[in-house]
Design brief:
This protein is α/β, with parallel strands linked by helices. 42% of the residues lie in helices and 16% in strands.
Length: 298
C-alpha cells in the first residue's frame, strides 16, 4: 500500500495502537501518536520506530483530551507543525457502556458522557483536522494515474456496528455510534470539494484488552460470540487496522462518506441473539449484557 506521508493517530491501545503500528509497517515517513495518557502514546511510538520500514521514519507523541476543544486544537496543530502536513488521520478515542439499563432506567449522566466523548470528541477532532488539512497543498493521489485526482488528506473515524443496529440496554451507545456515522458522512460532504476524504470503520467484537478482560470475567462470552458471528470468531485489532489502512491509501481514492461494517457477517443475520440461547437469556442475564458494550471500545 502506498502510504508514504505523515500520519496522526488518536488512541494508544487496542485498535488505535494497531493502526499506529500498521502505518509504521506500511512505510509512512512520520507519525504522531496522541492519547489522554502520554506514557501510553510514548510506548506505542517506540514500537512504531522498531517496526518502521521507512529509513527516515520519525515518531512523536502528544497528549489529547478529545472532549476539550483547546486540547484537540493544540494536539492537531502540533502534529501539523512538526511534520508539515497530516496526510492520514485516525480517531479511535471512545468509551463503552458502564451500566446497561433499559431506557426507562437509563442513566442521564452516562448518556451525556457517552455523547461528550464519542460524539462531541469525533466532531471536535474531525473539525480541527478539516481546518488544518484545507490549508495543505493538494497533491496527486497517484502520479501514474492522474485521473485519480488530487487530495489534501484522509480522515478515518472509528465507529461501531452499533451505529447500524440497536442492542437492548445500550441506548447511550447505540445513539452515540449512530451520531458518529452522521458526523462522518456530513464531514465527507463538506470536505469533498477540498480533496479531503472522511470515512469510518465500524467493527463489532474486537480482540482488545477490554474484551479479553470481559472473557476472563465471563467464560461463556467467547463461545457466544463464536455462535453469533457467521465467521465464527472475534476480530483482531489488526484486521480493523487493515481496513483503516485501505481507506487511508490511494487505493480508496474514490471512497468518502463510507461507514464500513466489520462484524464477521453478524449484521446480515436475523436477530438470533435475542431469544433462546442468545445474549438476553437467564443464563447470561444482565451481567453479560453489562459487558457487551465495552467490546468495541477502541
Amino acid at each position: 500500500m502506498d502510504l508514504t506521508g505523515s500520519a496522526f493517530v488518536i488512541g494508544a491501545s487496542g485498535i488505535g495502537k494497531a493502526c499506529a503500528l500498521a502505518f509504521a509497517r506500511y512505510g509512512v515517513r512520520a507519525i504522531v501518536v496522541a492519547d489522554l495518557t502520554i506514557e501510553a502514546a510514548s510506548a506505542v511510538a517506540e514500537e512504531c520506530k522498531y517496526l518502521a520500514t521507512n529509513p527516515d521514519f520519525l515518531a512523536e507523541t502528544v497528549a489529547i483530551d478529545v472532549t476539550k476543544e483547546e486540547s484537540v486544537h493544540e494536539a492537531i496543530t502540533y502534529a501539523h507543525r512538526i511534520f508539515g502536513r497530516i496526510d492520514y488521520a485516525v480517531n479511535s478515542a471512545g468509551v463503552g457502556v458502564q451500566l446497561a439499563n433499559e431506557i426507562a432506567e437509563a442513566s442521564v449522566s452516562e448518556f451525556e458522557q457517552m455523547f461528550k466523548v464519542n460524539v462531541t470528541g469525533t466532531f471536535l477532532v474531525t473539525r480541527a483536522l478539516s481546518t488544518i488539512m484545507k490549508t495543505q497543498d493538494a497533491v496527486l493521489v497517484d502520479e501514474a494515474v492522474p485521473a485519480r485526482g488530487v487530495a489534501r488528506g484522509s480522515i478515518v473515524n472509528l465507529g461501531s456496528a452499533s451505529g447500524f443496529v440497536a442492542t437492548p440496554g445500550m441506548v447511550q451507545y447505540t445513539a452515540a455510534k449512530h451520531a458518529v456515522n452522521g458526523v462522518t458522512k456530513n464531514a465527507a460532504l463538506d470536505n469533498a470539494k477540498h480533496g479531503i476524504r472522511v470515512n469510518s470503520v465500524c467493527p463489532s467484537w474486537v480482540d482488545t484488552p477490554m474484551i479479553r478482560k470481559a472473557m476472563d470475567d465471563i467464560p461463556e462470552l467467547g463461545e457466544m460470540i463464536q455462535k453469533a458471528v457467521p465467521l465464527g470468531r472475534i476480530a483482531l485489532a489488526e484486521e480493523v487496522a487493515d481496513a483503516v489502512m485501505f481507506l487511508s491509501s490511494p487505493r480508496a481514492s474514490y471512497a468518502t462518506g463510507c461507514n464500513i461494517i466489520l462484524d464477521g457477517g453478524y449484521h446480515s443475520c436475523c436477530p438470533c441473539l435475542m431469544g433462546p440461547g442468545g445474549f438476553d437469556t437467564p443464563e447470561v442475564d444482565r451481567e453479560y449484557r453489562h459487558m457487551v458494550p465495552g467490546i468495541t471500545v477502541m
